[in-house]
Amino acid sequence: MATVARVTTITARSETSFEDATRSGIERASTTIRGITGAWVKEQQVSVEGGSITAWQVTLEVTFVLED
Hints:
Number of helices: 1
Strand content: over 45%
Order of helices and strands: EHEE
């Protein structure tokens, strides 16, 4: 039997780092999406106020296996 997967896009934001935004995004997605097998960081961006970074944001392409 063949395995079929789907890719969905999510965005996550952190006030700490890109790594934290990525981790938080995957952890949150895992609460509603079963079978996550990987993710690709498609885009990164920061918010800046007064010359300082205030938030880190990632756009993730999350891959998960479809259930029968």
